[in-house]
Every structure is written in C-alpha cells, then in structure tokens.
C-alpha cells in the first residue's frame, strides 16, 4: 500500500468516527453505484510556529505533495494554502491557520496555554495529523474562545484531525449538477450550510461547492461532556478554464462561507 493511502485511510477512520453523517452519505452514494473520489481533505491549525501550516504540511511534502496557492480571510483572520500531488488521483490538501496575533490578548494567552500542554516534536510527523486534541480544556474556555472565533473554539475542542473530506462531484455518474446532489443529500435528512447560499461559487469561478452542517457529537471537556459541532462533509464540482484544464484551486469568497459549517447553531 502507498504510504499516502495509509495516511488517508487513518484520517478517514478518525473523521468517520467524529462525523457519522460522512460515512452515512458516502454509503448512500456507494449504494447508488457511485465511485466516491475525494477532491480534497482539509486541516485546521493555529499559526504558532510549533504547529503552523508548514508543520501540518510537512508529512505531505515529504510524500510528494507540492505547495500551491495561498488565500487570506480578513474577517475570520485566517490564512490558507493548498497542496497538490503530481498523481492526480490523490486528493488535494487544504490547510488553514488562525492568525493569533490579530485576536485579543485573552484569546492569545488561552490558546498559547493549550499549545504549551502539547508534547514536543509530534507535529510535522504523519502521526500528528490524527493526534486529536493534545490538551485538556474545559467547556467554559471552549465557549469563550468560540464566542470570539468559531474556528478557535473548534480547534480547542478537536485539535488535529481531518476537518472535512470532499466528494469530487465530477466523478459521480448520477449527478450532472451539484444542485442535484445537494437536493439528494438534503432529502435524505442532512441539513446543509446555507451561509452565502446553498451552492457557493459557480461555473464562472470554475468551482461550485456546498457542504453539510457539522455533526453534533459529545466531547469530553475537563468539566464534563458537552455536545458540540464536529466535522462536515463537502461536495465540489470543478469546471474547465479557458486553457481547457480543470481548475484545481479554491475560491476565497466561497471558502469563507464553507468555514461556517462548524459554527455553533443558535
Ligand atoms: C475550510 C473551509 C474552506 C474549501 O474547500 O473552500 C474549504 C475549513 O472549514 O477548515 O474547505
Ligand atoms: Ni473544503
């Protein structure tokens, strides 16, 4: 087995446990005779040098991935980069990081306190990608972080895992348009993220995307269990550009809304 297949299999196992709906939706598609191909897998982190984007990307670069375009999200105070492998059958890897220095001193101190609990040297290795939450945190701290940044709250609760896998819609035989797939998923009882509209992007920007709302799962905080949004499933349809090749990048305005799939629903 290719080393990368092992990495993605471990990531999927962890993700499917955290995100029961992803396994269920995948099964719905497979039962219709579809081959489910992953467009990309996404990771989140903080921009602290001990675990920033470069650390998350390191095992992927080591296994042949190449760094591609970067994206900036002003309001959410995030930076992201995607990585691609020369073998087009492998999913792209999208990594974002929260820009800590742009937040309140309180958030920065809280997050640095969490990171200080981490064992040294695991981030940057394959095992780091599925490490889960390497710190102890109470539910009040989670809520306080999430009130300032939903992303910070999510990171505090879940740590390191695949934030989402993404179905490559072009590879599905039974759905010509992403709108049809979105309707199918919703009809089967999975609420979708409607921030910025059900379908984000379009043929004009060569990428159309939609995603479910994250599963609600019990998380063991240091002061007890609490049910919070975990991970979501995404769907992406890519279009040809003028040069006849399929667009491989991302669209910042769409991604900005996709991030909200893990927001706490109030
Ligand atoms: C990433 C959101 C952006 C995309 O495909 O544009 C994204 C996240 O929620 O961590 O996945
Ligand atoms: Ni994505």
General description of the model:
It comes from Parvularcula dongshanensis. It is a single chain. This protein has 266 residues and is α+β, with helices and mostly antiparallel strands. It has a single domain, classed as 2,3-Dihydroxybiphenyl 1,2-Dioxygenase, domain 1, CATH 3.10.180.50. The chain is 33% helix and 24% strand. The protein is built from 9 helices and 10 strands. The strands form 2 sheets. An 8-stranded mixed sheet has the order 2-3-4-1-5-10-7-6, with helices on both faces. The protein has a two-stranded antiparallel ribbon with strand order 8-9. A hairpin with a 4-residue loop joins strand 2 and strand 3. The model has no long low-confidence stretch (mean pLDDT 97). Bound molecules: 2-oxoadipic acid (OOG) and nickel (II) ion. The site of 2-oxoadipic acid has 12 residues, from strand 1, strand 4 and helix 9.
């Amino acid at each position: 087995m290719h080393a990368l297949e092992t990495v993605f299999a471990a990531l999927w196992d962890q993700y499917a446990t955290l995100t029961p709906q992803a396994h269920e939706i995948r099964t719905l598609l497979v039962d219709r005779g579809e081959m489910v191909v992953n467009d990309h897998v996404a990771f989140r982190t903080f921009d602290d040098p001990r675990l920033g984007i470069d650390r998350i990307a390191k095992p992927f670069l080591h296994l042949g991935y190449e760094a591609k375009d970067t994206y900036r999200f002003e309001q959410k105070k995030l930076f992201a980069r995607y990585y691609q492998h020369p073998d087009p059958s492998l999913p792209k890897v999208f990594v974002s990081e929260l820009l800590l220095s742009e937040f309140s001193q309180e958030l920065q101190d809280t997050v640095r306190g969490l990171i200080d609990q981490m064992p040294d040297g695991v981030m940057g290795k394959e095992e780091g990608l599925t490490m889960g939450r390497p710190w102890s945190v109470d539910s009040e701290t989670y809520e306080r972080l999430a009130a300032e940044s939903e992303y910070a709250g999510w990171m505090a609760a879940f740590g390191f895992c695949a934030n989402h896998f993404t179905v490559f819609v072009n590879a599905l035989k039974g759905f010509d348009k992403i709108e049809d797939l979105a309707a199918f998923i919703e009809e089967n009882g999975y609420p979708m993220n409607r921030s910025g509209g059900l379908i984000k992007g379009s043929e004009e920007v060569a990428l159309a995307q939609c995603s479910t709302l994250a599963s609600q799962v019990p998380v063991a905080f240091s002061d007890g269990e609490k049910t919070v949004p975990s991970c979501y499933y995404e769907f992406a349809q890519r279009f040809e550009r003028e040069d006849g090749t399929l667009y491989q990048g991302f669209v910042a305005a769409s991604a900005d809304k996709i991030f909200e799939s893990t927001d706490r629903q109030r």
